[in-house]
Write a structure and sequence with these properties.
about 130 residues; alpha+beta; two-stranded antiparallel sheet; 3 helices; globular
Length: about 130
């Protein structure tokens, strides 16, 4: 079995178990041939991004119990489709990216330097800096 890699070239770390994310709902931004949306960008969603996504046909905020989906709120980590993240970037509302949990295949669409400019970092006490 091959170990998935992140955009930094190291082992792909989980994005989120609560809420449970990933195309395969395993907490990781893994991808495969069935993942036509390419859900590979681990991001800490923001209120402006959630509104942008809703306005563009993908409401990630509204709970959907039939899919065991509680809805996202600002600060949640979620595996986003790379194209949606790029659309949000162009609109000026791209959420910060967790590089260690963003799949290496993202680099087929976005340069590492761009991802690094939008990276989420936390301080020693765990609070975000971006």
């Amino acid at each position: 079995m091959t170990i998935a890699r992140n955009v930094l070239g190291t082992e792909l770390l989980p994005c989120s178990y609560d809420p449970l994310t990933g195309f395969y709902r395993d907490g990781c931004c893994e991808t495969g041939p069935d993942d036509h949306g390419t859900h590979v960008v681990c991001a800490r969603v923001t209120a402006p991004f959630l509104e942008f996504s809703r306005a563009n046909g993908n409401d990630l905020s509204t709970p959907r119990p039939e899919w065991r989906f509680a809805g996202l709120k600002a600060g949640d980590r979620w595996c986003l489709c790379v194209q949606r993240w790029l659309e949000a970037l162009q609109a000026g509302v791209a959420p910060p990216v967790v590089l260690e949990a963003t799949h290496a295949s993202t680099l087929q669409y976005v340069k590492l330097e761009v991802l690094q400019q939008h990276a989420w970092h936390k301080t020693a006490d765990g609070s975000p800096t971006a």
